[in-house]
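Subgroup meeting minutes
Present: P.N., E.W., G.H.
Scribe: E.W.

1. P.N. recapped why we're keeping a running log of single-chain structure predictions: easier to compare across weeks, and new members can see raw inputs and outputs side by side.
2. G.H. added today's entry (294 aa).
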Amino acid sequence: MRRFLLIYNPLSGNTAFKTELDYVIQLFQRQHCLLIPARTEKKEDTPSFIQWAEELHADGIIAAGGDGTIHEVVNAMLEANTTIPLGLIPCGTSNDFAAFLKIDRSMEQCVGVITGGRCRSIDVGMINDKYFMNVASAGLLASVVHKTDTTLKNTLGKVAYYLKSLEALPNFRSLPIEIHADGLVIKDDILLFLVMNSGVAGGFTNLAPAARLDDGKLDLLIVNRCNVTEFMRLLIALATGNHTNHKNITYLQARDITITCDEPLESDLDGELGPPLPLRLSALPNRLKVFMPQ
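Output recorded in log:
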């Protein structure tokens, strides 16, 4: 009998996953698999759960939650240097990484992907001394997730982020940034940058059209300085995937990236508060095994 450790965040999304837990256990049992649930109460719990998985000789570690929960679990897994594969059950407010993998909120599909046993080794992003699965960003809108009320997120989902973003627009300003990307140097005033492992961020599904999870590269998207009207038009281009040749967009791929700013600026990692600039980012090829759809 295969064994899986399920790490779930009871506060993710609309907090509904805990009401579906019994059904998820039933789905695994139907596949002759034992599911062992572990409930996160604080971030310090997660490394202990990874140790449990090792001691249990688990066949997989499952993260149930949003991008922030995946971020927390993956960092604990890589710090423990485990080779156990990762499974995903996307049930958070933001599930961008799962969307890139084409894993949806259907519990039947999620369990089928994991019990199907098809694994793939994928790249992971490293930023200073931490890891990220999906995106590292800073600048305009990057801190919205941290300023959005939890109750509002649970009620409105991603709409809460969009409302908070509109609230921030009147106060936006450009930032003096210097970027080194595989020898290329960019010095400019920008509004926002995203360093992506996948091509999905903030609900936008095609931000990095060349993104691959096994190419050993990170995708850098920079929104250059523009006025509010231009920025609103740019959002439409981003939503429709017509932005790569836009005059206010810089898009490139690199293995190693360094970003500095002349003023204090915090980053965001997979929806979690990241380290302040300067940032040193790199792609770690084939660093993590993940259960994938057929």
